[in-house]
Design brief:
eight-stranded mixed beta sheet, elongated, three-stranded antiparallel beta sheet, alpha+beta, SerRS_1_N_sf, aminoacyl-trna synthetase, Helix Hairpins, aa-tRNA-synth_II/BPL/LPL, BirA Bifunctional Protein, domain 2, ligase
């Protein structure tokens, strides 16, 4: 049976509990999206700490970013074509810094007065001097309290604007147009291209949130992740089974657009709560970030290589909808790499892209890998290698996989670190959905290719099922 969301009401007592949960999530999300995001979950100021637990305080280098590297920041923002004014952020920083300096002076003077009062009480000198010092101490306490209250909105405004500043760009990132780094074959000319949605025998599509794959499409969707994950495991990766949910803090750390991620309607949620629960899917980069948050490791454990398969949920704003290309749910294989430095990460990324090339070659169709220009990157990305296949019906390339270089931008925000002598450093990270199986199916069908399941994957899976059944024989 096909489930059409428009026909359901989450309050309907006849609906199963799991469907009620899904519908409540979808119906509540727009309201929650409108009411939220006045403040950040990544940095919670002291006045909001009573209502919102501060999970961490990101590592932020204000002076280095805004003053020492000011020219590089301007160039970065210009290349990304962002509507950000670094001068405004710098002005906010100067006001914030002046208030912080004043607060530090008051705290220092208060400590000095406290010591002087203790000395006067010991020596039992003139009572009038002691009372004057106590009065000054009270005045300092009240001034400090007032200054803190005054500082909270200034701090909140500045830090949250600072957190919007993008990651530095990799030297490999092109400025205006994509740069091809690998290509297999060329797009084939098709006289009368047909949409993948025309294959009613393989795809039952109702809307971006409701579709079913059938026959060969379902087999391909099921077995391809097994094959992909196994290739990465053979190359030294560790398999993860990630959660389908992530908190707002993790999404903000990776500069993920919150408007594209569903909010889960928690029953005990409060209007003031900022660290909300989101449906991201176990095949998303956010699903890995909870594992590394505040994680401290020894450098001998690096590089880390993880792989996971699962769903990825992204709400697409694009209209009209384009079938499986804009489906809310996709079947993805996510990779995650952490390295000591930029050079080590570059080598790991090159190896991972090599594995991806081998996997896509088996599809026996045209594809390419390009570096996307700066203005197409998210704020956290330093470089993005986009794996693309051609869609004849739309006459354009569709991203069917990617691997992004985040440098140490996300690590600093989530305090993911490793020990280097007596100090701590932040690992360089690369991650991405190396294969979006749902979009690959659509591209293969539009190019008239067969959805061939790798024999090795299907045979291994069948053998595993037989072995499991034999346990109960």
């Amino acid at each position: 049976m096909i489930l059409d969301s428009a026909a359901f009401d989450s309050k309907n007592p006849k609906l199963p509990d799991n469907l009620k949960t899904i519908m409540r999530l979808r119906q509540a999300a727009p309201v929650l999206h409108q009411a939220r995001r006045r403040i950040s979950a990544l940095y919670v100021t002291g006045d909001k700490a009573k209502e919102n637990y501060a999970v961490l305080t990101p590592y932020m280098e204000f002076s280095k970013t805004l003053i020492d590297e000011q020219d590089a920041l301007r160039d970065n923002i210009a290349k990304r074509r962002l509507n950000l004014n670094p001068d405004e952020v710098l002005k906010k920083y100067e006001v914030y810094r002046s208030k912080e300096t004043l607060k530090a002076d008051l705290e220092l003077r208060r400590d000095q007065i406290a010591k002087e009062i203790k000395e006067l009480q010991k020596t039992k000198q003139d009572e009038s001097i002691l009372q004057a010092k106590k009065h000054e101490g009270v005045e300092l306490r009240n001034s400090l309290k007032s200054l803190k209250e005054e500082l909270y909105p200034i701090e909140d405004d500045f830090v949250h604007n600072f957190l919007k500043l993008p990651n530095g760009l990799c030297q490999k990132t092109p400025v205006d147009e994509s740069r091809i780094i690998y290509r297999q074959g060329l797009p084939k000319s098709i006289q009368e291209p047909h949409s993948h949605l025309d294959r009613k025998d393989l795809i039952d599509y109702r809307d971006p949130t409701c579709y079913y794959l059938k026959k060969e499409a379902a087999h391909f969707d099921y077995y391809t992740p097994f094959n992909c994950v196994q290739r990465f495991l053979d190359s030294g990766y560790v398999q993860f089974v990630n959660p389908d949910f992530a908190r707002t803090l993790l999404l903000e750390a990776a500069s993920i657009d919150l408007n594209q991620i569903e909010i889960v309607d928690e029953e005990d949620i409060k209007e003031s709560k900022v660290n909300l629960l989101h449906l991201t899917g176990g095949g998303s980069v956010a699903s890995f970030l909870g594992f590394i948050t505040k994680l401290s490791i020894f450098p001998t454990f690096l590089p880390l290589r993880f792989v996971a398969s699962g769903r990825e949920y992204i709400m697409q704003d694009e209209k009209p909808h384009r079938g499986l290309f804009t489906a809310t749910q996709s079947n993805c294989i996510q990779t995650f790499i952490a390295a000591r430095d930029e050079d080590e990460l570059d080598k790991e990324v090159e190896t991972a892209l090599g594995l991806a090339i081998d996997l896509f070659r088996e599809l026996d169709t045209h594809f390419r890998i390009v570096y996307l220009p700066a203005h197409q990157l998210t704020g956290a990305e330093s470089l993005r290698a986009s794996i693309q296949m051609y869609s004849p019906i739309y006459n354009e390339y569709i991203e069917v996989g990617h691997l992004s270089n985040y440098s140490n931008y996300v690590s600093k925000r989530l305090l993911f670190n490793f020990k280097d002598g007596k100090s701590h450093k932040f690992p360089y990270i690369a991650a991405g959905s190396i294969m979006n199986v749902t979009r690959i199916i659509a591209c293969l069908l539009e190019n008239g290719r067969a959805l061939t399941v790798p024999r090795s994957s299907s045979e291994k899976d069948v053998d595993a099922i037989k072995d499991f059944k034999n346990l109960f024989a």
